[in-house]
Write a structure and sequence with these properties.
Rossmann fold; 13% strand; globular; alpha/beta; five-stranded parallel beta sheet
Length: 192
């Protein structure tokens, strides 16, 4: 039976990497995957992921990223996947992880907080990109059970997420038939 996959997403500067590093030690064995790695691996022909022309590229990268996380889970590692895996990719995520125990967490903080945190990371992160992606996450609806307030210390954010994982309140449900009478998803074998 595969280990759980924990997806942490949200706009740049929201604290995904920091929180991922705090979650990972709570599971043994565990792995952390930075979703940016898969996009950064592209060299020539790469379209900036915030441009509308990048949709097909981004969809392919998301599929590769999520399949890789599922591969780690198949090997028994609880896998924390952090990156820009916004709600607009939920259908892809559910398709790639059907039958897996996937906890989907969207971190949210005010734009000013994300800009400040991004600025502290260095000059490589453009404020316009941060603002654009923050707007994308703000406009895209996500069920409240997946949304976590990240406008507080990372220890509190990690504790909130661990509580949701333990209570299974942020699990994706790709197929309503997989939900037991208690309202909790049943773990199923991966199909096909």
């Amino acid at each position: 039976m595969p280990a759980p996959v924990i997806i942490l997403t949200g706009p740049p500067g929201v604290g995904k990497s920091t929180v991922a590093s705090m979650l990972e030690p709570r599971f043994d064995p565990s792995a952390v995957l930075a979703g940016d790695f898969f996009l950064d691996a592209l060299r020539t022909g790469k379209i900036p992921p915030w441009e509308s022309a990048s949709h097909d590229q981004n969809t392919h990268i998301i599929d590769l990223t999520v399949r890789t996380a599922a591969g780690y889970a198949d090997a028994g590692w609880t896998t924390v996947l952090e990156g820009i895996l916004g709600p607009w990719f939920l259908a892809n995520i559910e398709e790639q992880t059907h039958g897996y125990d996937v906890h989907y967490i969207v971190l949210h903080a005010p734009l000013a907080v994300c800009l400040r945190r991004a600025e502290n990371r260095g000059p490589d992160l453009d404020a316009g990109v941060v603002a654009k992606m923050h707007g994308e996450f703000t406009r895209c609806p996500v069920d409240a059970r997946h949304r976590v307030d990240a406008d507080r210390g990372p220890v509190d954010v990690a504790a909130d997420i661990l509580d949701r994982i333990e209570r299974r309140t942020a699990v994706l449900r790709a197929d309503p038939a997989e939900v037991s009478r208690t309202g909790r998803p049943r773990r199923t074998e991966r199909r096909g």
